[in-house]
Amino acid sequence: MTVATHSLPLSEIVEPTSQAELAEIVARAYANGTPLYPIGGGTSLNPSAGAAPKGLGVSLARLTRVVDYPARDMTITVEAGLTMQSLADVLSVEQQRLPIDAPNADRATLGGVVATATSGPRRFGQGTIRDYVIGISAVDGRGVAFKAGGRVVKNVAGYDFCKLLTGSHGTLAIITQLTLKMRPVAAATALVACEVTGFDQAEALLAALTQSKTSPTAIELVAGPAWDEDRFVQATKSGCAQLVIGFEGTAIEVDWMIAEIANEWRALGVTESSVLREAAATRAWQRLIEFPAEDAALVVKAGVLPSRVTQFVAAAQQISPNCSIAAHAGSGVVYVRLPSFASHEGPAVMIRGLHPAAVKAGGAAVVLSCPVSHELTRPALWGPTRQDAHLMRAVKAQFDPKNILNPGRAIFEN
Amino acid sequence: MIAARLPELVEQLTSIVGVEGVLSAHSDLLVYECDGFVIEKNCPDVAVFPRTTEHVQAIVRLCVEHDVPFLPRGAGTSLAGGCLPVGGGVMIVLTRMKEIEEINLRDRYAVVQPGVVNVWLTQALKGTGYHYAPDPSSQGACTIGGNVGTNSGGPHTLKYGVTVNHVLGVEAVLANGEIVQVGGPAADAPGLDLTGLLVGSEGTLALVTKVWVRLTRDPQGWRTLLGIFESVSDATSAISAMIGAGIVPAALEMMDQGILSAVEAAFKFGFPLDAQAILLIEVDGLEAGLDSQRDEIIALCGAHGAREVRQAVTAAERQLLWKCRKQAFGAVGRLSPSYCTQDGVVPRTKLPYILEKITEIGARYNVKIVNVFHAGDGNIHPIVLFDERDRDQVKRVLAASGEILDECIACGGSVTGEHGIGVEKIEFMSKMFTPDDLDCMARVRMAFNPTGRLSPSKMLPTSGACGLEQRHPGRRAAM
Questions:
Q1: What single-letter DSSP state applies at residue B11?
Q2: What is the predicted ipTM?
Q3: pLDDT band at A374 (very low <50, low <70, confident <90, very high)
Q4: What is the CATH number of domain A295-390?
Q5: In CATH, what number is assigned to the domain containing residue B20?
Q6: Which residue, among A154, A305, A409, A411, would best test binding to B if mutated, counting the most B CBs under 10 Å from its CB?
């Protein structure tokens, strides 16, 4: 993905060192009607729709403190500008982790991951970032600092703004601090991969996985040129896609699952599979995580019904024969990467192609990154208007009455 | 509301749902004067029982037209007055919307109407290899619509998460009568996570008329253990050690000596009555990993002073153990004529401290307090025993309860882990949140419920002081 603060219309970038300072900046911008663009690691800054008004970049780069890490409670409170890698380093000392995958973890910030609701292959077994945020502090579009949730793992006092701000793309408030619950690190991991000859077989295997005795952490279906070299399956390419199952647990559990899945697949006619362990497993996880962030002309994310993943993947290949695909097939999340397209084709690929295909598969698609996004219109980027968009706008008007937070970057805007 | 307009309203409501769907006689409405929080009671002016989303819509539009307050109710098992009709008005009882509309194992979701009782879904899924994870102790009676309203928990939420982690989307009728769907069965619907906002909003933002819930794969096996301890502090330090060792039990519950005797009298499980605390520990998952987890737990309990660790070997034994736990509150009647329970949360490492504090507070106010709670989550449910005929005792009970919750806040915790704010804990909101925090919440309510007719005087102190003064605690069932 293009790291693209230059994709934002910035007059300058400010780097507050405290929430109070940040609140002052926002309050001033509120008074003057200055647009503000929150910036974390700069890994997910595009796209935006149309020519956005010039404004101030608000970087969270200097809000990186670990506020409180009571490891025995398995919670941690950190400032939003901490990178995912730094967070992982802190947690690993205590044999703990936040099992949320994010591309470019050395730059991507926790605040950014929460604001964009970034997820990866482990979401099938581990859930998404929404399941881990238990407390949140933020500054709204008037410069008012507020919080919700708390520092305990179970809490139903007040509205759950942890959920509301997760995935809000910085359009309601600028997140300054987060409290998360942790998981223990997995002692062992391995991936098992097989080749599927056609999408019918892929769907049959995916459907069978719903009754598998194994307990996968990830169920991935990958296809296209990006996966043709350096394949997960060791045999020569003979089919249309590779199915990759990720396991985590104790060594005994992982070994048992590897043997079990091979048995289950054999009964379904899959005779050859490859097991990836140790360094090969680490690398495989990494490739699956980084896929949506690799350089491409267009990256689209679709959320569809799991049973229609193969249908959507087949449709995407029809629309763009040289695209590459990685699907969190167990969860129904599909990433489509187009290596190139003529700029005039962009809208057509989306409006007449991937959006209708996603709707047909029971879900919706959005453009995740597009270096030439200024040439994509709102319907091309974000698809048909949702019927609950007016409620989203009503909520936005309460948090950000002057629409100064990330203008032009909310899918629910008019 | 103005009594003069009531006959007209009743007639119009009857034309929507039929005569069997409207109650307006005072004697019929008594059942609806409160939920499990019985301290404050108030009858609605009318209770109406819609069977479809369109019914709900038409009812809400009538309420808007007549400018009367209205609120939703499920089974009324909530514990904080969430469905108390403050100021009267129209109570929309959703228990006749009770169909399981769809079970889709391939896509791992089910669609249910709000009046579906939690355990009905469990039963419908039996044998499929899937279940609906949230299992509040009241699951035999409480509705999934109500679970959504309060973001219910339960013993197994320690590993599997609470209601919000299992709701994919809802259909709802807004305060102006509009029908909307937020979220749905496909992952990551674009835009704001309004589903996450509506879950746990205690009926103050919208009336939920349909719920898409996630289905969870049944674990391959269980190991259910009973750790028996000579002291409460040994038990709580064992909890801390287990969590610290990276074990994530499916459930980790504690009962102290005070409640054990009542539970034993009721269920005859064979609990050792001289034990000061017992831990009910369950791990689940792949068979391949369970024995080693069990052995590790037994070793950790032993290292922290457990007298004995027993294992429930048969399914029947396991079931009885869980029955003892989930119905423990029912057994409290054996201990005293009245009781009230609290729902505080503390960081898990603060459990030894808060339990000592509870004992001290009980001694200071001269009231007996027993404990049964979700230890793995740090979610305490101290039960204060008393006789409601003794007015002085009642005062002491309220003061002790309040002090326990203040202590939870001081520990960095919360005044409610799963029961909700309702009307009961409104006064605590300003102790947990700043005026700015509360103003933000009030603004969100404005976005959904601008006139405040839907569930007035709930959850937020700013939404109009409810003016309820707690006079005496009541007998309440709890989690």
A1: H
A2: 0.97
A3: low
A4: 3.30.70
A5: 3.30.43.10
A6: A154
